[in-house]
Design a protein that fits this description.
Distance between the termini: 58 Å
Oligomer: single chain
Order of helices and strands: HHEEHHHHHHHHHHH
CATH class of the largest domain: Mainly Alpha
Structural class: mainly alpha
Strand order of the largest sheet: 1-2
């Protein structure tokens, strides 16, 4: 009997608690988000804080041991050494080039999958676009190394035209990164074009607008937020990549390579170099937000 009373009391408490949470949606949302946000703060923001702090430490030139003394020498060297400046500018240029190429390629592909292809084929085309993301990153990069190598597929295809492949270097890095991150640009543009009302295109044609004018005045303003969303992925992933450039980049150096090479020898300098992509990506996001492209996301 006592057990039944205790069980009933427990059920009543649970019901009252559930009713209280049902009446307070903000409290329910807070309880749901507390654990993941705490996890994010500890792992992600905590690691970023350690990165920023260690960037102001120094290294003993004789023992290579980290000396926890506050100093701005790493950042001074970072922005006064010509090699570091060239690598930073090259890395940002590669990220921008990959983003532009992804947008140029993604538009016609997404337009076909969203507006031209038959409705029953559209899900299959989207799956086909996303299929490369299921493959291993290293497998895809090494596949491009075989394609771009001397006597590889690129040379074989261009030989009838008297041309040869780009080989290993900066163009190969941009080409490979474009292939790797292209699905991240196609998918949001496809979604935006799929949701674009057909009557807007018909109205533009009825008013005498040609295809180019319709694209500039109707399609592009409505798809621009999706392009901005896709560019965040392509830009940030390209800026922080260092494996691709090691495999197909030849002697090309990007920020990621310098971070990797300094981890063992000069950890504070590696941390200072690691802050550069973070700052650049934050500035990139602020610039996109300033244009208003993210307002409707």
């Amino acid at each position: 009997m006592a057990t039944d009373v205790t069980t009933a009391a427990g059920r009543g408490t649970v019901r009252r608690l559930a009713g209280s949470l049902h009446r307070r949606p903000r409290l329910r949302l807070t309880l749901l988000l507390t654990a993941p946000l705490l996890w994010l703060a500890v792992l992600y923001l905590g690691s970023l804080a350690v990165l920023f702090v260690s960037a102001f430490w120094t290294t003993n030139s004789f023992t290579s041991q980290v000396v926890k003394v506050w100093s701005t020498d790493n950042f001074h060297e970072l922005f006064t050494t010509p090699v570091f400046r060239q690598v930073i500018l090259r890395s940002v240029g590669v990220a921008l080039a990959v983003t532009v190429l992804c947008a140029v390629i993604a538009f016609p592909v997404a337009f076909y999958t969203a507006r031209v292809a038959r409705p029953r084929w559209r899900p299959l085309l989207v799956v086909a676009i996303l299929t490369p993301l299921w493959a291993s990153y290293l497998v895809k990069v090494y596949a491009w190394r075989l394609i771009l190598s001397e006597g590889g597929l690129a040379d074989w295809m261009l030989a009838p035209f008297g041309l040869s492949g780009p080989g290993f270097g900066l163009p190969a890095t941009v080409l490979t990164l474009t292939y790797l991150w292209l699905p991240y640009m196609i998918l949001p543009i496809h979604t935006a074009l799929e949701q674009l009302p057909a009557n807007l295109l018909d109205a533009s044609a009825d008013l005498g607008a040609r295809a180019g004018r319709t694209f500039r005045s109707v399609v592009l303003p409505m798809v621009l937020p999706s392009v901005a969303a896709g560019s965040v992925f392509t830009f940030s992933l390209s800026l922080g990549d260092y494996i691709t450039v090691q495999i197909v980049g030849g002697k090309t150096q990007l920020i990621g390579n310098l971070v990797y090479s300094n981890i063992e020898l000069n950890l504070p300098m590696a941390a200072a170099l690691g802050t550069v992509p973070v700052v650049v990506i934050v500035l990139y996001l602020l610039a996109i937000r300033r244009t208003g492209a993210l307002n409707s996301l």
